[in-house]
Automatic annotation (TrEMBL), chain A:
Family, similarity comment: Belongs to the peptidase T1B family.
GO biological process terms held by the UniProt record: proteolysis involved in protein catabolic process
Main location: cytoplasm
UniProt KW Phosphoprotein keyword: no
Compartments (UniProt record): Cytoplasm; Nucleus
Assigned keywords, A-Z: Cytoplasm, Hydrolase, Nucleus, Protease, Proteasome, Threonine protease
An annotated Gene Ontology molecular function: threonine-type endopeptidase activity
PANTHER family noted in UniProt: METALLOPROTEASE TLDD (PTHR32194), PROTEASOME SUBUNIT BETA TYPE-7 (PTHR32194:SF4)
Catalytic activity: Cleavage of peptide bonds with very broad specificity
UniProt name for this protein: Proteasome subunit beta
Automatic annotation (TrEMBL), chain B:
Taxonomic placement: Eukaryota, Metazoa, Chordata, Craniata, Vertebrata
One Pfam family it belongs to: UMP1
Listed name of the protein: Proteasome maturation protein
GO cellular component: cytoplasm; nucleus; proteasome complex
Superkingdom classification of source: Eukaryota
GO biological processes: proteasome assembly
Family from the record: Belongs to the POMP/UMP1 family.
Keywords (A to Z) from UniProt: Chaperone, Proteasome
InterPro entries named among the record's database cross-references: Ump1 (IPR008012)
Species the sequence originates in: Oncorhynchus mykiss
Amino acid sequence: MATLSVCQPQLGGFSFENCKRNAVLEAEVTKLGCNIPSARKTGTTICGVVFKDGIVLGADTRATEGMIVADKNCSKIHYISPNIYCCGAGTAADTEMTTQIISSNLELHSLSTSRLPRVATANRMLKQMLFRYQGHIGAALVLGGVDCNGPHLYSIYPHGSTDKLPYVTMGSGSLAAMAVFEDRYKQDMEEEDAKRLVRDAIAAGIFNDLGSGSNIDLCVITKGRVDYLRPHDMANKKGVRCVYEHEALPHQTGNYKYKQGTTGVLTKSVIKLDLEVVEETVQTMDTS
Amino acid sequence: MNTRGLRSQLKDSVPVTGMGQQVGAYGVQDTLRSGFSSVKNELLPSHALELSEKNFQLNQDKMNFSNLRNIQGLHAPRKLQMEYRAARQIQRLPFLQSSHLALDTLKGNDESISFEDILNDPSQSEMVGEPHIMMEYKLGLM
């Protein structure tokens, strides 16, 4: 009987068949007191700044799943086109798929126009797609690049609104990073100053926000050159206590193993186990 | 992809009344083709996006044609719709997978990728329609 109802041609795209079933399952499970697994988010600090010759984008590298760190070193700066890169905050799968789809679309577009793609094109494609899905795709993005009209920086929210600004931050650590930007941003900075500013902003997010952590990735885009610095700064090394500005060297975590002879030995007895060879087989390894 | 959404064009969009019952030949529920009816399934969509996604392509097309008519005159959308109708007929039998190459080229879908191409590819679907029933439905014999 089920096959008789398949008379209409099937379309691709999202299928909402299981939504009612999922809602019922969720209600049942919360009645029992358990939790359904949550999507992996990148509770994040991402930011971008426009300097004299181009753009610096920065991101931390922690991906969280509820209260657990799911990925200690994930890459949040995604490639869109040779001159455009995009940082993504929000649900990790959504940012990944969205940036890949837009990257493919931009590639097809630039092949058909035979020109280097513009940042405004990427921005418009992203905002139209995110608005179509009314915020259900949880992707908050910082899009930056250099095209024929100069450097451009956009921030794109999950519901589809965009802002074109000289410095932007997104993610759960955005307030900490924005505080650093508001204090020290100047127009037409040099590249080293811009890199230091972005590094400090991301570090502020890492140390003051639980959803951000691990290392700092930077991406410097100028006309004709892209420097993808991953990792630019390993702010949190495992086993090393963190560096404060007033201390000269980072010190190792203490060694808590006891020396041989700390515990006095009262008696010692050695029992030899007699093991005899029962069977011996040789298996040749296939090294072709 | 998206033309400017002028408010005056919205009057042409497909009215969103609900999931709607599948009404058969005699005005009653078509149990043979669409299964047993359930009021709960039909009153509310199971997801906020379900209705808007179902009508998205239709609304886009209506808006684009309406714009084109205002800019270039009635002949432009008419000619395009005629070409679409001709291209839509180039396909295999209903239960087989057709590539819709001509239709996609006309609509410009060959130069863009979206979720329709990645998720739920119809050529990979596990359900296949019963060939005789689908042919009879297409020819209007049933």
